[in-house]
Specification:
By secondary structure, chain A is α/β, with parallel strands linked by helices. Helix content of chain A is 33%, strand content 29%. The chains are: A alpha/beta, B mainly alpha.
């Protein structure tokens, strides 16, 4: 359904000059540096898959999505969506795609949500009866009734995101590219959006490619994860195999009431730091349950306070390498 | 036809967006009208003082000025945000247009639609007055009316073409505001007056490098002064089509270089 082969995108950057008149020389200079935002990546996505595309800021996630949806032209390599190129056949491909950029709305800022839907419906040649029906469905699923007649600029972030998701789905595309659809939302709003995405993936068979910084999005939604860093793919597989590969390191910080014993070498956890009466240990939740870990820690002395940190997203990405 | 309908729809949406801020909407309309009235008064003062410019009478110079004003109002009304492409390049707003199954240029043309009613009214009124004077002096025949319509259309296309070419350079250079000042504003202001008042090198520039003289000066030579022949009009039309075609070609090349912005 989506095939990406040897995709590369380079951006030219002007290098900084050193010494006198550096600003002037940088301006006049013809030489430039090349930054590879996306470097020779290949993958393919089958119908009905829910793929998480993750990586730290600046890894090339958005650049990839923008190339897949026809906004950016690749420096080399190619993209095929249902066998079509999103660059030379942009208009045809755009009808099969629903694209959402969580950071920026695609709705008409000053107009009511309903008007944006009307304009989009006309752009995609959606018949009036189909349009009415689909808006009604989306309205019910995403609970948009209270703000259908509110100008987009007056919506809350959660409302705006729902309206944007509905806009991306209005022309019933088979493929969805969602760039950070839960960014900045509160827990409830995130949960609702996740439930909605799961429904359209499972029940309507939509193929979804999602980028996010939220590990919960990935764990709860994606059947497959692609990790990108520095423009290269570092991992491509199921969420379970990602977990196997990196473990799920939990960090436990324990403060003891008085001087404690130190763990022996054959301990199943790793001691990473010790300051005064506080120990920081790391354990792999696949190997040891939290309760067992606490019991082991209690053996070292009387505990005053415990603090547990779930694995940090950036940390996990880091470990893939 | 389909694209025309689409264009109309987007223009209406854009007008409705602007109408959300009614005060600003009407104030902008009033201000642009005022500015063009002041501009013309300036020209009128010069002409009444000296009677003519390098052999061009008041009516003739007025005709030149009026046709160009209407052409410009047409171009800037129908394709207003082509002139503001820089904004889209810097902010990455072009993304939204690229995601839709419509031609990107059409989408851009329909954004922030502003109907330059002040310029139209002023241009048409002035044109009517000047053409009447020229009729009475026997310089014009009825054939001038359809020819003038053609000239205004071809002038609008030429200005659009020059604007498009300049804007597309933004895909390479990003910031183009100053360049637009030269190729669009300064050049067009220059050819509001008969070309003969300028030194040779500048006439050459306005006939070749930025061929904006073909918008109204060259065809006016034939229509109101009877110089050359009908071929001057044909040549003007040909230049307009060629420049616009080149603009479209550059646009296609430029789109492939669009860099968007980080997010």
């Amino acid at each position: 359904m989506i095939t990406v082969s040897r995709l590369t995108k380079q951006f030219k950057t002007a290098p900084r000059k050193e010494g006198r008149f550096k600003a002037l020389r940088a301006m006049l200079s013809r030489d430039y540096g090349i930054k590879e935002a996306v470097n020779d990546i290949s993958f393919s996505v089958e119908k009905g898959e829910f793929v998480g595309y993750i990586g730290p800021n600046g890894a090339g996630k958005s650049t990839t999505i923008k190339m897949l949806s026809g906004i950016l032209h690749p420096t080399s390599g190619e993209v095929r969506i249902d066998g079509l190129s999103p660059h030379s056949q942009r208009r045809q491909v755009s009808r099969r795609l629903g694209v959402l950029f969580g950071q920026r709305t695609q709705l008409w800022w000053d107009l009511p949500v309903r008007d944006s839907f009307d304009i989009l419906a006309a752009m995609y040649d959606i018949a009036p009866t189909v349009k009415t029906l689909r808006i009604k469905e989306l309205c019910a699923l995403l609970e948009m009734d209270p703000f259908m007649d509110t100008p987009v600029r007056k919506l809350s972030l959660g409302q705006r995101m729902r309206a944007d998701i509905a806009a991306a789905l209005l022309h019933d595309p088979d493929i969805l590219f969602l760039d950070e659809p839960t960014i900045g939302l509160d827990v409830t709003a995130k949960r609702n959006i996740r439930a909605f995405l799961r429904t359209i993936n499972l029940e309507l068979g939509k193929t979804i490619l999602l980028t996010t910084h939220d590990m919960d999005d990935i764990e709860q939604l994606c059947s497959r994860v692609i990790v990108i860093n520095d423009g290269r793919i570092g991992f491509d597989g199921t969420i379970d195999s990602l977990r196997d590969r990196i473990g799920l390191p939990t960090i436990i910080r324990v403060t003891y009431r008085k001087e404690m014993a130190l763990p022996k070498d054959d301990w199943p956890m790793r001691l990473t730091n010790r300051t005064g009466l506080t120990l920081t240990v790391e354990c792999n939740r696949k190997q040891i349950r939290a309760m067992d870990a606490l019991r082991l820690l209690e053996n070292l002395g009387e505990i005053e306070d415990v603090h547990m940190d779930e694995p940090d997203f950036e940390e996990i990405i880091h470990r893939v390498y | 036809m389909k694209w025309l309908r689409m264009y109309k729809l987007l223009v209406i949406a854009s007008l409705r967006s602007r109408m959300q801020y009614k005060f600003n909407f009407w104030l902008t309309a009033a201000m642009t009208a005022l500015v063009s009235v002041v501009e013309f008064l300036l020209l009128a003062v010069i002409l009444t003082k000296f009677g003519h410019i390098k052999g061009w009478s008041l009516a003739e110079a007025g005709y030149l000025y009026a046709t160009l004003t209407i052409s410009k109002a047409l171009y800037r009304s129908l394709a207003s945000d082509v002139h503001h492409l820089e904004k889209y390049l810097v902010s990455g707003e072009l993304d939204n247009l690229l995601l839709r199954p419509i031609p990107v240029l059409l989408g851009l043309m329909s954004q922030n639609f502003s109907f330059r009613i002040g310029e139209f009214l002023q241009g048409i009124a002035l044109l009517a007055i000047c053409m009447r004077m020229l009729f009475l002096e026997g310089q014009l025949t009825w054939a001038a009316i359809p020819l003038t319509v053609v000239v205004i259309g071809s002038g609008a296309l030429l200005l659009f073409g020059i604007g498009l070419l300049t804007a597309t350079i933004g895909f390479w250079l990003t910031r183009i505001e100053q360049l637009q000042n030269i190729t669009e504003d300064a050049a067009r202001t220059a050819v509001q007056y008969p070309l003969t008042i300028y030194p040779r090198w500048m006439q050459g520039l306005l006939l070749t490098f930025i061929p904006v003289a073909f918008a109204s000066y060259i065809p006016s030579l034939y229509i109101i002064r009877g110089q050359g022949g009908l071929w001057l009009i044909a040549a003007s039309l040909a230049v307009a089509v060629a420049v616009f075609g080149l603009g479209l070609l550059m646009w296609r090349l430029g789109i492939a270089r669009y860099q968007s912005t980080g997010s």
